[in-house]
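Researcher: We're reviewing a set of sequences before deciding which ones to prioritize for further study. For each one, I'd like a predicted 3D structure that I can look through quickly. This is Oxidoreductase. If possible, include the structure in token form so it fits the rest of the review sheet.
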Amino acid sequence: MRTEGLAAIVTGGASGLGAAASRALADAGVKVAVLDRDGTGAAAIADEIGGIAVTCDVADAESAEAAVAQATRAHGLARILVTCAGIADAGRIVGHGGPIALAAYARVIGINLIGTFNLMRLVAAGALALEPLDGGERGVIVTTASIAAYEGQVGQAAYASSKAGVVGLTLPAAREFAPTGIRVCSIAPGLFETPMMKSLPRHVRDGLGASVPFPSRLGRPEEYAALVLAIVANPMLNGEVIRLDGALRMQSK
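Model: Here's the predicted structure for Oxidoreductase, in token form for your review sheet.
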């Protein structure tokens, strides 16, 4: 899909992978709506790239519907969706204080999985109303899973199962939208330089980077963004979850 002049929505766009994807899409000529709960951060990225910022809670139906409507008024219906909004709250299923609070588990599922589905349903509904481009494409949806979906560690039950849900959503969504020319792929990053990772001490980050077979370092958000652009550009990429992890396979702890 040629990107020049198209509209895109990026969730979690105020920082990390979402900010990098927003910048890359804008550089490719896309009109980007940066969605995030952090309205100030979203505005900073939007100002930088010439897009618009929209405050949005992806897990809330009304908030997401209002955000998509605002983005549509500014840029027209989006043909590209990139979902990067997510949290990685850790906790054992049963810790020293007893079982984890169900609300804590539900919060992770709500943002990571339901939030992904929420924006997917809204953007896909809009893209279905658009005329197909050359080759029959109407849109591309790129979601963000994690290698934790496959090798979740102790303490990652909520996060890993939320991301496994994103993996499981990919193929049925791609199959459903295939007759109308909307593609769906997911990226499963490994260890990346995100704000959460940057909050760790330097020696911890260096140790995590060294655990990656090659390149032996943390991934850069720009490398995630480059894969987003590659997926958008290549019409044969559909229904696939692509690991972006330097051949890392996580241990149990």
